[in-house]
Amino acid sequence: MADKIIVAVCSYPVLYDTSSPFYRDRNKKVQAWTKVSQVVGLPGEFLDVCRKKWKGLRDVYLRERKKEAGPVKRWRFFAIMSFLDPFVTPILSSDNMLTSNVDSDGAAPAFTTVTPVVARTLSGKYWKYVYCLVLF
What we know:
Elements: H1 2-10, H2 26-40, H3 47-66, E1 114-123, E2 126-135
Antiparallel strand pairs: 1-2
Helix pairs in contact: 1-2, 1-3
């Protein structure tokens, strides 16, 4: 069922392409999900089943994308889900340690540029966006 949902959703960019003019149109999305459920073979009243399954598949794909490439075995739907790559924006993350260029005589750090960064952090059970200044 998962592979059918992936292929069906791929045919309807309104469900994943945030730059689509109809991305925020609820009626278009309901129509698209109705067609996806028909392709998958579920009756119309199971739209939420398709949506939840897609959300789970998309979330697993995004987690797998973050993993380092290497000898680790990839998720079986990773290649199929790669059509999402142009529509997924990476979120910058950083640690809370600031490194600097301290001279050998212990002089003040020599930072060259200040760059604003928006980072996403987990606060309790909610994600929050933090505006930071990163010194280089």
